[in-house]
Amino acid sequence: MNTDKVINVLLNSDEPSIRFKTRVNVLSEEIDSPEFKALQNEIKNSGHVKKILSFRDRDGRITRGRNVYDKWKGSHWVLSSLADIGYPQQDRSLIPLKDQVLDFWLKEYYFTDIEVIKKSDLNNKTGVPVISGKHRRCASMQGNALFFLTKLGLFDKRLDSLAERLLHWQWDDGGWNCDKNPEAKNSSYMESLLPLRGLSIYSKYSDNKKIHTAVKKAAEIFLKRKLFRKVSDGSVMKDEFLSLHYPLYWHYDILGGLKAMAEAGFIKDRRCSEALDILESKALPTGGWAAEKKYYTVSDEFIMNADSVGWGETGKRKFNEWVTADALYVLKAAGRI
């Protein structure tokens, strides 16, 4: 694979976000220059961003649908997308969306533990169930909120509360799970990836040592499984984990796992090697990587599971800029390019 050629393609992309991700994550350029501020301003005014933000009302909020988590156009997912594509930090126009997200994910419900023995005991009770001594909470929600609000520079004292809830719900094995089956003993990859990413990025701004400890514990549930293998017999946990996607939303694949390892500083752990090998093996003959599958459709309507924009072509032989930029990032972080 001619890496220089692929990087050159990305640097000449029509999408300013692709140019930004390549220059920052692959070429390690500093972002404090006027040139980069101009590039981020181009991102802010891009067609992609305008569509993503198109459902805001006059108050800057998104009030359609059921709540902030509506897939993939609620406030939660809008901010998640912006954080990943290089949208400029500390943009005050996003504060109404930030407030929506924090008000929703820090409701009293999430500060109320309910000790129950079985799922039926939850009838007519409100709060986070604790079954067999384990909190059963979809922590990917609060974890993602902590990640994208921190990355967007939308700091708020309430971010401490998001981090505290994640620490409170963390299982002994290092992850999180919302499975209400009393027999469930292992954390969920899907519920643990985003809390890991959220706590990892927030640890850079917090002096809470418990957060650093929690990040190490969370990373270990992925590392001890080599990011995709069962501990019991070494078999692949799910075939879906070996397919590449963009965006990943709340799902998991090896590229998402490797991104989390790179962000948290564990990408050079030898237990990442096999996943990195697989990622390298998926490079297209002409260079770059494909989005092999996707978790969205595209629609101008506010409907479930439809994104406002497309994220490149999907198919095992079709070059995808977004996947390629992320693949080059983790390979660079791992010292492979």
Alpha-carbon distance between the termini? Answer: 11 Å
Per DSSP, the total helix count is 13
Q: Spans with pLDDT under 50 lasting ≥5 residues?
A: none
Q: Sketch the major β-sheet.
A: 3 strands, mixed
Query: How many DSSP E strands?
Result: 5
How are the strands ordered across the major sheet? 1-2-3
Question: Over the alpha carbons, how many angstroms does the gyration radius reach?
Answer: 20 Å
**Tally of distinct domains:** 2
Instruction: Summarize the amount of helix as a percent range.
Output: 40-55%
Describe the global form: globular
The run of helices and strands is: HHHHHHEEEHHHHHHEEH
Tell me what you see in this structure:
The structure is a single chain. The chain is mainly alpha-helical and 337 residues long. It has two domains: 1-59 and 227-337, no CATH class; 106-223, no CATH class. The protein is built from 13 helices and five strands. It has helices at residues 3-11, 16-26, 34-44, 47-52, 75-84, 95-105, 140-151, 158-169, 189-202, 209-223, 254-264, 273-281, 321-333, and strands spanning 113-116, 128-131, 134-135, 297-298, 306-307. Strands 1-2-3 form a three-stranded mixed sheet, with no helix packed on it. A two-stranded parallel ribbon has the order 4-5. A hairpin with a 2-residue loop joins β2 and β3 (134-135). α2 packs parallel to α13 (321-333) and α9 (189-202) packs parallel to α11 (254-264). It is globular. The mean pLDDT is 96.
